[in-house]
Design a protein that fits this description.
globular, five-stranded mixed beta sheet, Cytochrome Bc1 Complex, Chain A, domain 1, 15 helices, single chain, alpha+beta, about 425 residues, about 20% strand
Length: about 425
């Protein structure tokens, strides 16, 4: 097929969406960059696992590249790389996704190979045992990483019941006992077209990209019904200050991690003000916490605020690296900053600066085919609303100082949070 190129212009326009009879959603857009990215998003992550198979979704991600009835072990990667393309995958709490980026002329040949890998992974026993060792080594490396250890301790403190408290990689004792039959059953249950969104973006006509994807799915012989996804209730906000202190001799400096339970994607409109508040607190050297605690008072070496959003519940976090002796005064000063957010409206100058930062990061992060395909797949399959991906800058622009103050009052209680202190 001959590609029809379009002029050099990039904008956030509504892509074409087609939902096939088998349930898969295809999102396609032509942009004038000579590459095509295909990103398959699946409604399966560690959140759907039981404790007995914690880590299965990530382990399966590894096994997806170990061949199908049509492709031998390693053949898929060799095919992609021999054409100068690249491929990778990622597993989170609420999703797994698989993507390739290839030249437009190679898309019709290589895209069906990616779809075949995802739909028809054979999970051979010998490769399962070999890859188990790779995953166990990954878990061990994570346990040896101070940042990963701190993250794990933080999630266990923030969440009492929600599966977000568990590691995506799973524990060694669980991964060591999983069987290839369990994995094949897990794959059959979750890797079905009804659970998938395929986003494809690049310099090919939209109809051509959709046709390639649709034909590849038509070759799927068996259509299974997906497992129902379990619903989770958000955990209540903290009603007091919950403290945990641990010692980590590998650290040179202490860490202070303050956390609040906040809305997740099921209440996504409530997450926008929190995203802006995190930028107001730590979005650059002139942001409130950075300017006050690092630049002026020199009490911390590093400080950042972030709003982490999962499907059922998120966490607003303030992370600090600092000398151990400064912990009490820094925590008290952070609480003062939160009180200020609740009692004083953000200035218009400050709000405009943060709006520009947030919207520009979104726009700059959607220029390449890979980035746009990732945004479309994530918002359609995980968030459940593709339109939000197209209107996000406008949504951020609509947030007022009063909205920010209300969010700070509702969710960032300076007298009720979970705080993890890690001392060398």
């Amino acid at each position: 097929m001959t590609a029809t190129l379009i002029p050099q212009t990039i904008s956030l326009t509504k892509p074409t969406v087609k939902r096939l009879a088998n349930g898969v959603t295809i999102i396609a857009e032509q942009i004038p960059i000579d590459a095509v990215s295909l990103d398959i998003w699946v409604n399966v992550g560690s959140v759907v696992e039981s404790d007995e198979i914690n880590g299965m979704a990530h382990f399966l991600e590894h096994m997806m590249f170990k061949g199908t009835d049509r492709q031998s072990v390693g053949e898929f990667e060799r095919s992609i790389e021999s054409h100068g393309g690249n491929t990778n995958a990622g597993t989170g709490q609420d999703y797994t996704h698989y993507y390739i980026t290839v030249a437009p002329d190679d898309f019709a040949k290589l895209a069906p190979l990616q779809i075949d890998v995802v739909l028809n992974a054979s999970i051979p026993d010998a490769e399962f045992q070999r890859e188990r060792l790779v995953v166990l080594e990954e878990i061990s490396r994570s346990a040896d990483n101070p940042s990963q250890r701190i993250y794990r301790h933080t999630m266990e403190l923030v969440y009492n019941k929600l599966p977000y408290r568990r590691p995506v990689l799973g524990p060694i004792e669980v991964i060591s006992q999983l069987t290839s039959d369990q994995m094949r059953s897990f794959h059959r249950s979750w890797y079905v077209p009804q659970n998938m969104t395929v986003a494809v973006v690049g310099n090919l006509p939209v109809a051509e990209m959709i046709e390639v994807v649709e034909n590849a799915f038509d070759r799927q012989l068996e259509i299974n019904s997906p497992n129902p996804r379990k619903s989770w209730q958000p955990e209540p906000a903290f009603d007091s200050i919950v403290r945990q202190e641990i010692t980590d001799p590998s650290l040179q400096q202490a860490r202070l991690v303050m956390n609040w339970r906040v809305p997740g994607l099921t209440s996504i409109d409530q997450t926008y003000p929190l995203n802006i508040l995190s930028s107001i607190l730590s979005g650059g050297r002139t942001s409130r916490l950075v300017k006050d605690l690092r630049e002026e008072k020199a009490l911390v070496d590093r400080i950042s605020a972030s709003n982490s959003t999962n499907m059922w519940q998120g966490s607003f976090q303030i992370f600090v690296q600092l000398p151990e002796a400064n912990i009490p005064v820094v925590e008290a000063l952070i609480r003062e900053h939160l009180i200020r957010l609740q009692t004083e409206p953000v200035t218009q100058v400050e709000l405009e600066k943060i709006r520009t930062q947030v919207t520009n990061r979104f726009i700059f992060g959607s220029e390449s085919p890979k980035e746009r395909a990732e945004i479309y797949g994530y918002y359609d399959r995980v968030v459940g609303d593709l339109d939000i991906a197209l209107t996000y800058p406008n949504l951020i622009e609509s947030i007022t100082a009063a909205d920010l103050q209300a969010a700070a009052i509702s969710y960032l209680n300076p007298d009720a949070y979970a705080v993890l202190t890690i001392k060398p």
